[in-house]
Design a protein that fits this description.
Layout lengths: L1 H34 L7 H37 L6 H41 L2 H7 L4 H39 L4 H10 L2 H28 L4 H34 L1
Helix pairs in contact: 1-5, 2-3, 2-5, 3-5, 3-6, 3-7, 3-8, 5-7, 7-8
Length: 261
């Protein structure tokens, strides 16, 4: 009986904590959206953040995109060996555009950028720098959150585009090197795919994923407490929260592809 009561109590506490977190995140999201109406106050910092986020992340995103295209081509060739080989080209471009390029790029950004933002803002929180900003009459959301969210949404678009390009190229190279198919067959498969809706879909995903990564990093970082240990927990919790948020968002955005098609 005591164990049952403890379980119910723990479940109730978790529910209260989750509800509080969703509520405070919603309030911060509303404040962030409202602050977008004042670009003069955040655009300079947004450019700085975009440079730091994008340029430093590009090599890793390209590497993962290259591996993704190669794996997709190999697996498609092995699974569809009873079908015309041009199907491989169609499978690679479809998989890269609709799922692999945006999602894997976002997961890479979650570990590299999201954790960094969580640790940076967590350090500012535990060292009372956030309180100092408020004392000076400056809004932490305007100063810290909005530039990072805007930068993440903007920078994620070219990163995903480059990941798609290198993934499709890598799929071609792998297909002609390891599978019994020609360049002409691969190109035919790529051209046979109705890729215009998929391009729109991958760009929509890129914007939402980029904003989600940076917003979640900012939110978790601003909740940090407990000194250096709190900063470590903030970085860890940021990555976990971002990956969960990305998967949920991926499910929510799935019907969008049908709409744009």
């Amino acid at each position: 009986m005591n164990s049952l009561s403890a379980s119910v109590r723990a479940l109730g506490q978790w529910g209260v904590t989750a509800t509080t977190a969703f509520g405070s995140a919603g309030l911060m999201a509303c404040a962030t959206i409202s602050a977008l109406a004042h670009p003069r106050q955040w655009r300079r910092e947004a450019f700085v953040q975009a440079k730091a986020i994008g340029i430093d992340s590009l090599p890793l995103v390209l590497f993962v995109g290259m591996l993704s295209g190669s794996i997709l081509a190999q697996q498609s060739g092995y699974q569809f060996n009873d079908l015309p080989m041009w199907i491989v080209g169609q499978a690679v471009i479809a998989g890269m555009l609709t799922e692999l390029a945006p999602l894997l790029s976002a997961i890479i950004m979650a570990g590299r950028v999201g954790a960094g933002i969580g640790a940076e803002l967590g350090t500012m929180k535990v060292t009372d720098q956030i309180d100092a900003l408020r004392t000076l009459g400056r809004d932490p959301v305007m100063e810290l959150v909005v530039p990072r969210v805007v930068a993440g949404a903007i920078v994620m678009v070219p990163l995903v585009i480059f990941a798609n390009i290198i993934g499709i190229w890598s799929g071609w190279f792998t297909a002609i090197a390891l599978l019994p198919m020609t360049t002409q067959e691969y190109i035919y498969g790529v051209q046979a795919y109705n890729y215009a809706p998929a391009v729109i879909f991958t760009l929509i995903k890129a914007v939402f994923f980029g904003a989600t990564i940076t917003f979640t990093g900012c939110y978790v970082g601003l909740q940090a407490e407990g000194g250096a240990a709190g900063v470590g927990r903030s970085a860890r919790n940021t990555v976990v929260a971002i990956i969960v948020a990305l998967m949920v968002l991926d499910v929510v955005l799935a019907p969008v592809y049908k709409a744009v098609s």
